Amino acid sequence: SDSSLAYSVGTTLDRFIKMKQEEFPFASGELSQLLRDIALAAKIVNRETNRAGLANIGGAFGQTNVQGEEQQKLDVIANIRFTRALTKGGEVCAVVSEEDDEVIDLQNGSGKYVVAIDPLDGSSNIDVNISIGTIFSIYRRVTPIGSPIQPEDIMQPGNQQVAAGYVLYGSSTMLVYTTGHGVNGFTYEPSLGEFFLSHPNMCAPEDGKIYSVNEGSYNLFEPGLKAYIEKCKSQEYSARYIGSLVADFHRNLLKGGIYMYPATAKSPKGKLRLLYEANALSFIAEQAGGMATDGHGRILDIQPTSLHQRTPLHIGSKKMVEEVGEFLNVGKEST
Ligand code: P6P
Which of 204, 208, 239, 323 is deepest in the core (most CB within 10 A)? Predict the structure, then answer.
């Protein structure tokens, strides 16, 4: 493969996708088109997000999503925008979204791909102007193209992803994604309407000194997790918890760190969703040299059993995720 192609910083996303596709002579271009469709929706959601405060679309929409959270109008708008872009793009046959209880069948007989998406995670942060994000996973359907969508098309383990990414609507808007050949980050230039390669070949620092967890729930944590947090404090790590998964994940990916949303007595499977939150970020973390577990095993190996199932998530720098696993499994070694 001509990986010698210089992906110079400043390359546009479109050109980057095209150059990467040329590395795969048998690529049909459908995945490339799908990535472009996602980027288009991200540009539109970015514009809506930036105007939310002015256009009074930040307020609660009155309905609730599977998280039972007040569905913010922007959540609904983002869901519509991404679903519409994927429908028009023609490459996708089904969408799993946090905002829809059931699978959305796009009635697209030629669609090869299934997308799992959290259109706008952390939406409770919208009306306090904290960064929010879109998280997406892309799978190839496993049943014949054109046949009715089957559960096995949807309930695929994260290790079957063909691509995954996130959009971070922050001080600048970034699109970060992987197709299984490393992780690359693109920064949006609104005046040009283009994403430009700003973070080529992103690599997670192997270790870090930042830990992200909601310590308000400390008393609910299992002993091993409490011990790990005490260890972080004893070594004067920095506690950084934004309350917005994509923002915390992205910062830890760049600087080194771990994000934990653990199992607790109250929530034995934690809060985060496997299909459209944990799997995508875990694929990215591993592709960047990091790690992601549910405290005991690899996130990407979990076989889903229900659409909106939750999973505990420990994700980020490899050494930190390994270490919290050791603390969690002390005394639980299988005899
Ligand atoms: P808690 C936002 O609702 C979210 O899904 C993630 O973005 C965030 O990291 C987490 O939940 C915050 O949850 O229980 O700490 O408020």
Answer: 204
For residue 124, give the DSSP letter.
G
Question: What is residue 274's predicted lDDT score, i.e. its pLDDT?
Answer: 98
Distance of alpha carbon 269 from alpha carbon 264, whole angstroms = 7
What's the pLDDT score for residue 2?
Answer: 43
Backbone phi and psi for residue 279, each to the nearest 5 degrees, phi listed first: -65, -45
Which segments of 142-281 are extended strands (E)? 163-169, 173-178, 183-189, 194-199, 210-212, 238-239, 258-261
Looking only at the bridges linking them, the beta strands covering 92-97 and 113-121 are parallel
Strand order in the sheet with 258-261: 238-239, 210-212, 258-261, 313-316, 291-293
Residue with the smallest CA separation from ligand 1 atom 15 is: 214
ipTM summary value:
0.98
- How far is residue 82's CA from residue 74's CA, in Å, rounded to a whole number? 12
Annotated binding-site members for Mg(2+): 98, 118, 120-121, 277
Mutate-to-test residue for ligand 1 from 132, 244, 276, highest number of ligand atoms within 8 A of CB: 244
Q: Do 119 and 139 meet the contact criterion of CB atoms below 8 Å apart? A: no
- Which SS3 state, helix, strand or coil, does residue 214 take? coil
Tell me if 271 CB under 6 Å of ligand 1: yes
pLDDT of residue 70: 63
Ligand 1 binding pocket mutation candidate from 99, 135, 271, 314 (most atoms within 8 A of CB): 271
Query: CA 151, 152, 155 angle in degrees (round to 5)?
Result: 80
